[in-house]
Amino acid sequence: MQIIRKKSEMKDLRGIWAREGRVVGFVPTMGALHKGHITLVERSVAECDRTVVSIFVNPLQFGPKEDFGKYPRREKADCEMCEKAGADVVFIPTVEEMYPRGSGTVVEPHPALVSGMCGAKRPGHFRGVLTVVAKLFNIVQPNVAYFGQKDYQQCCVIEQMVLDLDFPVKLVFVPTVREPDGLAMSSRNEYLSKEERKKSVCLYKALKEAERMIVNEKEKEVSKIVERMKEIVQEAGGRIDYIEIVEPKSLRKVESIEESVVIGIAVFIGSTRLIDNIIVCPNRGEIFCDAL
Ligand code: AMP
To answer: Which residues line ligand 1 (CB under 6 A)?
Structure first.
């Protein structure tokens, strides 16, 4: 496995692969890798001839009061995990390599897709995400790119960008990988103290209670479901950032549940902000992004 730090080297290697007719899979990450990331890498290795993983903590997608400075960085362990999973290249550019003149031209997300959930709570976040993903797509030129359902809204804005700007890449969305108690794996789980780690299961508990109400009780009223979810989070000592129930593609809020919906939740456990979501079909229960 090769570690590449320069854009020019990455592009040169991509040129060689193009001449050899290789199908290239790509997994963009911010590092501090866990089983969730590795599931994406393994999918790419299984489906493509070559797999590139990028590790880049992108300053553009962090707000001024967010955790850019303290975001966990551990290149060596990450590279070892990628190698074990069968990746061919780990691309690790510096901030200067990615933004040699600072940030200038940016990619704006479709406004309708960022008016709620993390888009509303983290202004500019998805602009940062799309700008770096567009740049990485241009550098790596993948045939296929892999993203996690864990960041559901991110999947939607990237899908829209690929459509609107004609990026020649196929997107694959992979279901969320969870800890045995249901907590979605996340690099940010490392911030949690032992006590907070116990509390953090409330996100998944609230989501599964919503599913139970929709499927078993045939509850359609979003306000009632959200109320119950709030109680679960607050009883556990979490501070709700948002709970939203939206249509899977448009991300428009729904008031009455008639078809499949995405239930998104963001909660502060202490000072750590965690997000999660599930997709629920009223007559089938939880379904995953690959079934949409
Ligand atoms: P990040 O390093 O947090 O930017 O994540 C990189 C990629 O891994 C994104 O596409 C995430 O959605 C995905 N990812 C993160 N956590 C998980 C998880 N628990 N299960 C599946 N995919 C994940």
So the answer is: 29-30, 36-37, 39-40, 147-148, 150-151, 174, 176-177, 184-187
Q: What is the pTM of this model?
A: 0.98
Give the number of the atom of ligand 1 that is nearest the alpha carbon of residue 186.
16
What is the overall mean pLDDT for the chain?
Answer: 98
Say how many Å lie between the CA of residue 267 and the centre of ligand 1.
17
44 and 167 share one domain: yes
Substitution candidate for ligand 1 out of 26, 27, 29, 51 with most atoms within 8 A of CB: 29
pLDDT at 103: 87
Domain count for the chain, please give it: 2
Q: Tell me the per-residue pLDDT of 155-178, one tens digit each, with 9 for 90 and over.
A: 999 999 999 999 999 999 999 999
* Side chain identity, residue 25: G
Residues marked active site are found at: 37
* CA of residue 79 relative to chain centroid, distance: 20
Q: Where are the alpha helices (DSSP H) in 122-260?
A: 125-140, 152-164, 194-199, 202-215, 222-236
Look up the CATH number of the domain holding residue 59: 3.40.50.620
Tell me the two tokens of residue 244. 């939203």
Q: Is residue 275, in this structure, part of any structural domain at all?
A: yes
115 and 72 share one domain: yes
Number of Cβ within a 10 Å radius of residue 59: 17
Segments forming the whole domain that contains residue 50: 2-174
For 273, the token pair is: 């902000």
CA of 186 relative to ligand 1 center, distance in Å: 7
Same domain? 17 vs 146:
yes
Same-domain check for residues 79 and 140: yes
Q: What tens digit of pLDDT does each residue of 167-221 get?
A: 999 999 999 999 999 999 999 999 999 999 999 999 999 999 999 999 999 999 9
